Amino acid sequence: MARRTFVAWGFCGPFIALFATFGVWPVVSSLSMSVTDITARDIRTPFSVDFVGVSHYTALFGDPVFRRAAVNTLYFVAAGIPLTMIIALALAVALNSGIRRAKALFRVGYFAPVVTSVVAIAVVWRYLYEPDGMINSALAVIGIHGPDWLNDPHWAMPALIVMAVWRHFGIPMVIFLAGLQSVPADLLESARVDGATRWQAFRNVTLPLLRPTTLVVAVLLSIGYLQFFEEPFVMTSGGPLGSTTSISYYAYQQFGFGNYGMASAASYVLVAAIALLSFVQFRIFRAKA
Amino acid sequence: MTTITASTTAATATHTASRSLRPARILLYGALALGLIATLAPFAWMFLGSVKPTGEIVAAPSAWLPRSPTLGNFGQLLSKQNFGLYFFNSTVVAASCVLGNLLFSSMAGYAFAKLDFAGKKLLFGLVLTMLIIPGVTTFVPLFVLVSNLGMSNSYLGLILPFVVTPLGVFLMRQFIRDIPDSLLEAARLDGAGEVRIFLRVVVPLCRPPLATLAILTFLAQWNNFLWPLVIAQTEDHYTLPVALALFSVGANGTNYGLLLAGAVTVVTPIVLLFLVLQKQFIQGIAHTGIK
């Protein structure tokens, strides 16, 4: 028996050691840093820091820059998640509805943005969003005079949302596709026999059966989108006028200023938001199921 | 008699359905094709732009096809911008993380799935919790830790925090749990030890999840941005995304030819890998979402 335990720890040991050091410890440490006045100068002498209670958290919510970042993050999540889900579901349904020719081509093509690095793709999109770039040229064709997307405080965030949706819809698309394939065909068939239209069958049979899939997609997207960071970092540096500064970006800025305590507090606001949103989604979808 | 009527009705129904569906189907294909073109246009523009001289890229009105194609941008990236080195760094970091994840996750996955030890449930709960912790939460203390270990600005500092991931252990444990115990018992009766069972029975059966894990880890590390940005302080430890980001916000911001060639350098290897292994890529992502 003792030997078996020894063997088990042998298999698990390397993972646990690394996971504890580089995974769990930083999470605990981040929480404790958020209630101290630790700065970049304390990096080698962790015992010189003082306990400051929740003052970083109160300071955060008193800081208009952070409040702006929180609002921006919510804006991004509130617009990005539904948009991504609708596009992903529409494409999944289209790909699943009796399309035979070129199905693989569509699936692979639509999935391609998922594998690209945001930094590389930002280079391209920055050019597309130029005042006389591709997007405005296309809009000019239908008589719309497009804005200077990334330099206009009202349009910078929508521009980043479009780019983020473009990059991410492929993942929910394949998850929805897998979900759709598990919807029993005879159930849809009998709905049709009972006189339901295509839309009614989708609305009353397919959608309810997709509820677990939708939950997974919603939770995955909220975890991902609440961390909104790379797009503003590479595309706008959080500007113009702070209109694309997110909570993650704010935490990164505080880290850059050497305010490690504030950076940790901001990141824990994010942890709380992720936990809360996941919990709420579980409640909503469970209640309906 | 009834059967014949039923099948005739069914045949007529299918017939009318396929006829009435025709315009709808053409519309569907048209919409899907249009969407595909819109999705892939940024890629096309990037690849075509990377072989244009900068003057041609910024010229208005801009043309899609290069008038005087050149590989000069790539030559300059390699000779003046050290992209060869960044490419090497990205490869070393991504490959090491893949190896570490495959080895440690399969070992730990086996222990979590089939062996008994104290605190197993608690530990696995911790692994699941860590799946939702955002990267920005850990990078400050991680930076302090890695600095204190004297590993900032080193390959070890780039690699160690990602050499194991909760996702890896989760994936492997889910798969290994479904391997029948009787198979392991049979090996035990034949006198095999746990190490031998793991290497000869478990690992050979684990090819599918190992392939998934390898692909997901490589993808995540090749595109990883925040951590290398924080930890690589001098050029000799930049990875491709870091080099490209700093390069694009720096004084070279206007040199679109070089920037696009840089972007192509980052994207091409992973896109090629994706085209070859697209099935595993897509299934891998779908599995992590479903399980």
TrEMBL record, chain A:
Organism: Kribbella jejuensis
Membrane topology designation: Multi-pass membrane protein
Keyword Acetylation attributed: no
CDD domains assigned to the protein according to its UniProt record, in alphabetical order: TM_PBP2
Residue ranges of domain ABC transmembrane type-1 in the record: 70-281
GO CC annotation: plasma membrane
Name of this chain's protein: Carbohydrate ABC transporter membrane protein 1 (CUT1 family)
Alphabetical keyword list: Cell membrane, Membrane, Transmembrane, Transmembrane helix, Transport
Record InterPro entries: ABC_transporter_permease, MetI-like, MetI-like_sf
Places the protein is found: Cell membrane
Domain of life assignment: Bacteria
Gene Ontology terms describing biological process: transmembrane transport
Membrane-crossing residue ranges in chain numbering: 7-28, 74-96, 108-128, 155-180, 209-228, 265-285
Record SUPFAM superfamilies: MetI-like (SSF161098)
Family as reported in the entry's similarity comment: Belongs to the binding-protein-dependent transport system permease family.
Automatic annotation (TrEMBL), chain B:
Residue ranges of every copy of the ABC transmembrane type-1 domain listed in the record: 87-277
Listed transmembrane segments: 26-48, 86-110, 122-143, 155-176, 197-220, 256-277
Alphabetized Pfam families for the sequence: BPD_transp_1
GO biological process: transmembrane transport
Keywords for this protein: Cell membrane, Membrane, Transmembrane, Transmembrane helix, Transport
InterPro entries recorded: MetI-like, MetI-like_sf
Compartmental location: Cell membrane
Record carries keyword Transport: yes
PROSITE patterns: ABC_TM1 (PS50928)
Main location: membrane
Cellular component, GO annotation: plasma membrane
Membrane topology label: Multi-pass membrane protein
Family: Belongs to the binding-protein-dependent transport system permease family.
Name of the protein this chain belongs to: Carbohydrate ABC transporter membrane protein 2 (CUT1 family)
